[in-house]
Specification:
Radius of gyration: 16 Å
CATH architecture of the largest domain: 2-Layer Sandwich
Order of helices and strands: EHEEHEHEEHE
Helix content: 25-40%
Number of domains: 2
CATH superfamily of the largest domain: VC0802-like
Strand content: 35-45%
CATH class of the largest domain: Alpha Beta
Largest sheet: 7 strands, antiparallel
Number of strands: 7
CATH topology of the largest domain: VC0802-like
Shape: globular
Structural class: alpha+beta
Number of helices: 4
């Protein structure tokens, strides 16, 4: 249920994202999802990858400032109100969300988010029969 997300500090410099993707590719680490949040002189790259511990290690070895954060992934219907239902359940149970990112394909959407209290969020979503992503659906063997 809990997924390890990498957060990488990026200087606002051409080629830094390319360098990260090269390092991951050379180490056979697949990227399942990512988002980049920018500020004026830097960005934060958040990644869900197939081998988070190895990715953490190789990125640090290559001089990147990187850490891991626990997040949750869930699957919601790709239809009007699909995400609203999940957010309503969390909100009604006083679970706030620090950030989220998502994508949709065909009939479902995958959502990655960091709740204020991860264990409570998992409990509430499971109780309400919401589908959570499993690490086996993301991590490489």
């Amino acid at each position: 249920m809990i997924i390890k997300q990498l957060s990488v500090f990026l200087e606002d410099k051409t080629g830094r994202l390319t360098e990260i993707t090269r390092i991951l590719a050379e180490n056979d680490i697949n990227i399942s999802a990512f988002t980049v949040a920018e500020a004026s002189d830097y960005g934060i790259l958040r990644l869900i990858v197939g081998r988070p511990e190895l990715a953490l290690q190789v990125l640090k070895e290559n001089g990147f400032s990187v850490n891991t954060t626990d997040v949750i992934g869930m699957i919601v219907p790709h239809e009007p109100g699909g995400l609203h239902q999940a957010l309503k359940i969390l909100s009604m149970n006083n679970v706030s969300i620090d950030y989220m990112y998502a994508f949709a394909l065909e009939n479902s959407a995958s959502v990655v988010f960091r709740p204020s209290v991860i264990e409570k969020a998992i409990e509430v979503l499971q109780k309400n029969k919401m589908e959570l992503l499993r690490t086996s659906q993301i991590y490489q063997l």
